[in-house]
UniProtKB/TrEMBL annotation:
InterPro entries: GP7-like, SrpI-like. NCBIfam families: MCP_gp7_epsi_15 (NF045672). It comes from the Bacteria. Pfam families: SrpI-like. Residues 127-293 form the Type 2A encapsulin shell protein SrpI-like domain. This is Phage major capsid protein. It comes from Parasutterella muris.
Length: 296
């Protein structure tokens, strides 16, 4: 009797390589360069200039008028980003020959939390979800917003956007389709899109506009009409945009909670007490309603 396929397959194993291939991929270069400040309490409080004290020109013996500067108190609260991972002990013990089940689940949970932070970094709105912090789109003021009026992206728009940050922006932030549109403009005007510079913070050549690095964030939404937003950001802890964290670590904290009470599983908790602060409103500007073109 010949060896049947069904029987032969019982004697053969498929080859399984270690690791898990990434399929959920969104780039956020902004997260990688955003500075963070430690917060000792539950909130970060600072003051912005409101009005400046004036001065008068007087003749001799005239009364000197008194005036004082005023300030606006700003409160940026820490928020809780948290999640648990349960891994069955039987599966961890018997099926970790090629891939450590617990390590992979922790790594993927951390990736998911980082993805959520990157999304809220742009789209966060505490008026919609009070458990989130306000993101870049909510923090930018109307005075710092330029309306592109559904016009096609051009260099003059970007120059005007950078002028909105008087102390100097550090980065431009665009989504992937907008960067493609920017490259199209470069090719149309100079015959090449190889306007790259090596930046120490990244370790590889970056696309730049007038020496300003262009960072990708794929959580900047596209409108149904093909319009989007571009942000110019001054990122620092003195007068710019920066992140906040509570506790001893500036990143995600991993805690082993031990055995779950009602099942034979190990529970691991990942958490991050985080937030976002914009010191000066002049450190953030937005070019909205810009048409990137049908071919982008």
């Amino acid at each position: 009797m010949p060896l049947l396929r069904a029987e032969s397959e019982k004697l053969s194993n498929n080859q399984l390589i270690s690791g898990v291939i990434d399929e959920i991929i969104e780039r956020d270069d902004l997260f990688s360069v955003l500075p963070f400040t430690r917060v000792n309490g539950k909130a970060y409080v600072y003051n912005r200039e409101n009005t400046l004290a004036g001065a008068d020109w007087l003749d001799p013996n005239e009364v000197v008028n008194e005036s004082a500067s005023t300030f606006t108190e700003v409160v940026a609260k820490l928020r809780i980003l948290i999640g648990d991972v349960d891994v069955d002990k039987f599966l961890q013990t018997t099926q970790s020959d090629h891939n450590n089940q617990l390590a992979i689940q922790i790594a993927k949970k951390a990736k998911g939390m980082g993805r959520e932070f990157s999304k809220v970094l742009i789209q966060g709105d505490s008026a919609v979800n009070a458990k989130q912090f306000d993101g870049v789109a909510k923090l930018v003021t109307s005075d710092q917003t330029i309306d592109g009026k559904a016009s096609a992206l051009n260099f003059a728009m970007l120059d005007e956007l950078l002028d909105k940050v008087p102390n100097g922006a550090d980065i431009l932030v665009m989504n992937r389709p907008t960067i493609r549109a920017y490259r199209q403009i470069l090719r149309a005007t100079s015959g090449t899109d190889a306007v790259m510079q090596m930046l120490p913070a990244f370790g590889h050549p970056m696309l730049v506009h007038q020496g300003m690095p262009i960072l990708m964030n794929e959580f900047i939404p596209m409108g149904e009409d093909g319009t989007c937003q571009i942000y110019a950001i001054r990122a620092n802890e003195l007068d710019g945009l920066h992140g906040l964290f509570g506790g001893d670590n500036a990143g995600i904290v991993v805690e082993n909670l031990g055995t779950v009470q009602n099942k034979d599983a190990i529970r691991t908790r990942l958490k991050w007490y985080c937030g976002l602060a914009l010191k000066s409103t002049k450190s953030l500007a937005c070019l909205k309603n810009v048409q990137i073109g049908a071919g982008a």
